[in-house]
Amino acid sequence: MHYMHSNATSDSKDEYITKISSGQLRYLSINASNVDIQVCGDHALVLGHLRAEVVSDGKPRILDCKFIAVWSFEGETWRFKAFAPTPIPTVT
Fold first, then answer.
1. Is 85 exposed, middle or buried (0-12, 13-18, 19+ CB in 10 A)?
2. What are the residues whose beta carbons fall under 8 Å from the beta carbon of 91, sequence distance 6 or more?
3. Shortest CA distance to 50 belongs to which of 84, 26, 7, 78?
4. What is the pTM for the complete model shown?
5. Is-contact 49 34, C-beta < 8 A?
6. Which of 2, 13, 25, 27 could bond to 19 as cystine, CB 3.0-4.6 Å?
7. How far apart are CA 84 and CA 48, in angstroms?
8. How large a percentage of the chain has pLDDT more than 70?
9. Paired residues of 51 in beta bridges
10. 66-72, long-range: CB within 8 Å, 24+ apart, which pairs?
11. At the topology level of CATH, where does 2-87 sit?
């Protein structure tokens, strides 16, 4: 699994789990909308809009981004492979 963050840093599965379990990264709320799932054989692309409240390294943040997630069907189950968000620019 490869998890790209909205600040362009990335984590492996183990790194991401460590950040969550240590409290370094906490999700307070997550809302996905306008989700579109495209199945292509043994793979699926999930596209949508994500808004989340997080605390990262002790600092609160609001995330507002478009995302793509990649899933693969392996054996008898779907496995999460990658996530990549693109922040939506703030209009001023």
1. buried
2. none
3. 84
4. 0.85
5. yes
6. 25
7. 11
8. 100
9. 31, 64
10. 67/32, 69/45, 70/43, 70/44, 70/45, 70/46, 71/43, 71/44, 71/46, 72/42, 72/43, 72/44
11. Nuclear Transport Factor 2; Chain: A, (3.10.450)
